[in-house]
Each structure stands twice: as C-alpha cells, then as structure tokens.
Amino acid sequence: MATSSSLPFLLLSTLLAAIVVLLQSPVSHADLDHQKAYFHACLSNKVWTNPSAPVSVIGALYTSTNSSFSDILNLHIHNKRFNRPNTPKPIAIITAFHESHVQAAVVCSKASNFQLRIRSGGHDYEGFSFVSDIPFILLDMYNLKSISVNIQNGTALVEAGATLGQLYYKVAKNSHVHAVAAGVCPSLGTGGHFSGGGYGNLMRKYGLSVDNIIDAKIVNVNGDILDRKSMGEDLFWAIRGGGGASFGVILSWTIKLVAVPPLVTVFKVNRTLEQGVTDIVYKWQHVAPKLHRDLFIRLQHEVHHKTVQVFFIGEFLGRTDRLLSLMKESFPELGLRKSDCLELPWVNSTVFYTEGPIGYPAEALLFEAKYPAQSYFKSKSDFVKKIISKKGLRSIWKKFIESEIIVMQWNPYGGRMWEISASATSFLLGIRHNSPLRKHL
Fold first, then answer.
1. Residue limits of the FAD-binding PCMH-type domain (predicted)?
2. Which of 52-56, 180-184, 192-196 has the lowest mean pLDDT?
3. What is the CA radius of gyration of the chain?
4. pLDDT of residue 28
5. Lesser CB count within 10 Å: N end or C end of the chain?
6. 166 and 67, same structural domain?
7. How far is 257 from 248, CA to CA, in rounded Å?
8. How far is CA 214 from each of CA 62, 160, 179, 224, 319, rounded to the nearest angstrom?
9. 325 with 209, same domain?
10. What CATH number does the domain containing 235 carry?
11. SS3 for 117?
C-alpha cells in the first residue's frame, strides 16, 4: 500500500508503441532493391499466405507505386510532425485483413532484414508505430477490428485494430451496466493502448486495462499464433504493459468487463487564478488519490486570455446527490454545485469526454477520423510523487502564461491502483509503488 505522503499521478497522457528492433547498418540502393525483391517474393510464398486472402491483392499491400499509398499512410497519423515530406516512409504498407497477413508481415520483414512497425490507432506521441530511420515495413491493423461481447461471462474479445470507441459502443449495445477500464479518447487503437498499460477514468475503481486482460492472441517472431496457454505466463506478463510489439504482434485481447451503475455523474468546471485556483489545485493534490474510489477527477490546465484556468473534469459511478455529499466532505474547496453535474449512462459519459455537445449520441464513438493530421504537437508523460508546493504551482502558471500553448493533464491514482502489486504486470508508464521494477524496466 502507498503511504499517505505518496502522490503518484500522470502529468500528460501518452501511449508508448514499442517496436521490434532489428539492428542494421546503412544499406546501398542495390542492397535495398534486393531486400525489396526478397520481401515481395516471401509474401508470395504459399507457406505464409492464405489462399483465400493473399497479401498481394489490392487493398492489403501498398507500395509507393500505388496511388493510395500516401492516403493509407496518413490515415491514422494524428500529428503533423510525422507526415512531412522529409519524414521517412515505409517500403510497403500491409493493411491486414486476415491473421495470415500478420504472419506474413512478421516473417517476411524478418527474412528480408526490414524493420517492422505495427500501428493500430496511431496515437503514439513519437510516431514509433509508423516512422523509422532505417528501411521498414508498416503493418497497419485497423481492418482487424472484430468485437465479440459475452455478457453472461462478463468478457469481450476485441481485435487489435478496433478503437476504444467501437469497443465501448459494442459493450453498451449488450449491457447498460458493463464497461471497459480504458482511456477517454475513442480513436485509440486497442492493440497499442492495452499493451502500453491502458489508463483511464475507471482506474481508481478497477485498475488499468492490463489489469483486466485475461487472454490474448499474438504472432511471435517466428510467425506462430499463440494464446495465453501456448505463449506461457512470462510472455503474457510482458505484453500487458511492456508494449505488445516488443515481443510480437497482438492480434486480439480477451478482457474482463467491469460493473457500472445504470447512470453515472460527470462534471467539468473551471477555476482561474482570480478565483483562487492555486489553493484549489494544492488541495486537490492532497485529496485526489484518497477520494472514494468511485470518483475520478482529472485536471486540465490551459491559458485563456492571459490567465491560467484549470478544468476539474470528474466522473462518479453514482448519482449526483451522493457525489455532492462526498465532495462536501472531502473537497469543498471546489464548490461543486448540482447545476454543474450531469447524469447519463456510462457509454454517454465516454462521449462527454470527447467534448461533444450535451446529448450527443453514442454513435459518435464510431466515428473514425480519416484525414491528414491538422496540427503539430509534442507530448510527454511523467509521474509526480510529492506534493507540488504553492510556490511551485505559481512557477508553473508563470511558464504557462509565457508560452500560451502548453496544456497539462493531471490524473490521480489511489484506490485500486494502490492495491495491485507492482509486479503484477509489466506496465511501463509509471510506478504504482516505489518499486525499482517500475522505474527501471
């Protein structure tokens, strides 16, 4: 258990998409042409292709000679930093429609000495899943997005290319009292999000996505398809937080669904410097990890009209009256009012976090952004384990006002996160406890 002086919370959300690394020396044009020829010959080998779904058909394999190559490459790039003319481009893109396509991508990339990058949602902040400084193949999983929900067993099987929005919508279509412990951005791909840890609003109640994974299918470096039993517990431990692509390619996850009430309560209120936000944020640091585990309050800091404003964005697994009672007891400084609160089904709360209009239908979760990235940005994550003083907060506000473009999100741990052993999974994004494992993996 963490002590009362311990305060771990994420500063900025991120997704690490680890990769299969093949160390190479620079290659000549002749060598590169030979590698390409070997790669395409390998794809045609019947050992690695399914007769009913060959990789070489249009719609599964794209090279720079295809008119759709750039469109497919940019389809899930959310940051303009990674679709500039000088950004390294893949030798080929495989948009897998079948498990055999994944097997072929792994085996043929390895055989032809190309690096393999694996993309599901494209949210990794450093572009690791679709950019490399050495010749590489891009395996895009977005067509493998089947979802099967079993409410009787309380589980869901989701392929790696499905987005969180698609998963949330499918679960809600089967039950109003089941949910998924995962992130708030509906366009996140489950392949990378889950293998990187998968934190979200339900983590103080149920832990991370990786804490609720009960099985997985993966293509290993030899092209074999393995489940939990055949891969063994060591590999199953590694892919839950250690980056699935570090050890192979995730095909699908089997996750345990979690219970939610028919209605949850959400709110989003902002406070400015003139409204004493420094004192409120200082108090939030003390109480956020200790609040009732049904309550999650994220902070988002921005600059607006030359002043800092902080949004307190909350989700409570219950009704408004109970929430207000808890807030009055534990965090009265925020001054939350009934008029600030909105009760709605859990699936609609996931739409609320996309900042869509109130009452926006759950179908909005199915929307897939298919256009080039619109902005440049840089995002980083870190952990804070000690209270930031009011002086320290004022220094942060000063930097915010000077830059005018910084946005920070602070997400509290505590609750269930303090009860799960630091060695239970290979979660790489931080340290649940003061564990060397969490620091140095």
1. 86-260
2. 52-56
3. 23
4. 60
5. N
6. no
7. 25
8. 35, 15, 16, 20, 31
9. no
10. 3.30.465.10
11. strand
